[in-house]
Amino acid sequence: MGLADYKEIVGTCASISTMGQMLAGTLICKDIYQKGSSRGFDPMPFLGGVGMCILMLQYAWILRDVAMINVNLFGLFTNAAYMAIYYYYSPQVKETLALIGKVATFVMVFLTYAQVEDPEKIEFRFGLIVTVLLLLLIASPLVHLGEIIKTKNTDILPFPIIFMGSFVSFQWLLYGLIINNAFVIFQNTIGFILSIVQLSLFVIFPSKSRVKTTSQEKAD
After folding, report:
1. pTM of the complete model
2. Which residue of 86, 122, 170, 203 is most buried, as measured by CB atoms within 10 A?
3. Using an 8 Å Cβ cutoff, are 148 and 154 in contact?
4. Phi/psi of residue 205, each to 5°?
5. Contact predicate 130/183, CB 8 Å
């Protein structure tokens, strides 16, 4: 039996794992709720997730891939819910609305492009676009690298999402090999590497809030 015989199994496992990754955002929303404010939390994992899921839905529709369609529909709804919570607790409503507007405009530009592009070229060209954007989204937490090194603190990084991301990227990489899609293979190979790099930051610079919590538990 070749890898192709396991397409449905791998696709299902990758979809379930991706949904699990998307649900990891509930842990961040829990922290926002307990804090009573979204100050200090990066909205891009949520807002970027909404935009990326919309674009990936368009690409999945082009490929007619049911597994990708289902998982991105789920991702769209969950990330929209997370972003709603972030917005509700945001102390900077105008700035948050402005960011939402920019992302919405950005997404609309590419959706419009997908409708006017040559049908014979759209799969390759749109695949290239979503690959670049997905990698930028995965790597987005690294924009805080300077601050992390300076403060020796990884609290600003969304650990649950990054941790699950490494696991999910590996599974989609395997799925990409099965369906022989260069973009799925490439984006998940790089995505897996980026996730591992970000996870290494938690080893080098442990979260101060976790260290503080552990110390308090020992004291109690």
Report:
1. 0.68
2. 86
3. yes
4. -125, 85
5. yes
Angle at CA of residue 182, ends 61 and 23, nearest 5°? 55
Q: 192: burial class by Cβ within 10 Å (0-12, 13-18, 19+)?
A: buried
Is residue 113 classed as helix, strand or coil in its secondary structure?
helix
Q: How many CB atoms lie within 10 A of CB 29?
A: 20
pLDDT digits (tens, 9 = 90+) for 133-167: 877 877 777 777 777 777 787 777 777 778 888 88
State how far the Cα of 128 lies from the Cα of 126, in Å rounded to an integer: 5
CB of 45 within 8 A of CB of 25? yes
| pLDDT tens-digit readout, 51-79 | 989 998 998 888 888 878 888 898 899 99
Cα torsion angle, 145, 188, 137, 203, sign: negative
Tokens in use for 187? 């984006």
Residue position matching structure tokens 């507007």: 101
How far apart, in whole angstroms, are the C-alpha atoms of residue 77 and residue 70?
A: 11
Q: Are 160 and 28 in contact (CB under 8 A)?
A: yes
